[in-house]
Amino acid sequence: MRASDAQRHTETFHRLHAGPGPLVLVNAWDAVSARVVERAGATAIGTTSAGMAWSLGYADGERMPASELLAACARICRVARVPVSVDMERGFGDSTQAVAEVAGALIGMGVAGINIEDGTLPGTAELAPPEVLCERIAAIRKLDARFFINARTDAYFVPWDDPAARFEEARRRARLYAAAGADGIFVPGMSSPDEIAKLAGAVKLPLNVYAGHAGAPPAEALARAGARRISLGCGPLQSALGLAGRIAAEAFAHGRFGTMGEGMLSVGELNGLFAAAP
User: Fold this and answer.
1) Is 208 part of any domain?
2) What pTM, to 2 d.p., does this model score?
């Protein structure tokens, strides 16, 4: 991607977080899912780290090599016509330098932004110290002043006896990550409209919430609560794989193929998604 196009995508991605409604990301896991989502109306593409890992034969949680992450992202960037944001989990590196190198490779291929998370200490249910992510955010910020860094805290993914303390820890970490140079805050697991509103008021950065689960509130309700970005994460792939399982079960158990024929895209439509791809 030309540097001018990459810069334009980055600026567009920033503006999408300040639009009249929240930015909704139906996350993709490979080139064809990215184009299908784009054809449906996406103004930006977010990747799903879990979906990308599963599609490449790995469990989620930075089990796939960084080289495979980068190769998959390069294929998406080759065909996408809108800004691309990559979920790089904890950074795909054991050191800040290694994480910055992965981020630099993504910037070099024209990616507009990333998600990067604090996560938990290996083999535990204990949150990693926020200073680690702060250091990584600061290092990535030095690579590109406008690269969109969406800082995720997993405060809602570890056990808590006190819900109020959980919220306070999420708020504390969000403020630390904002001070380190983040452009947005992501708190998956936070679904209460009251908590979303409190956090959105406490951190003056776009708040990202997760809606990739059954029973998720509609975008309108999340927007009223203060969400500026809504991610479906691995939810679309989970749904697609559930459909694939039902198609297979129907074929094996009943010798019928009706489920497969419902809503399938034609070969011509799919080929057409890549007609202009380099």
Assistant:
1) yes
2) 0.96
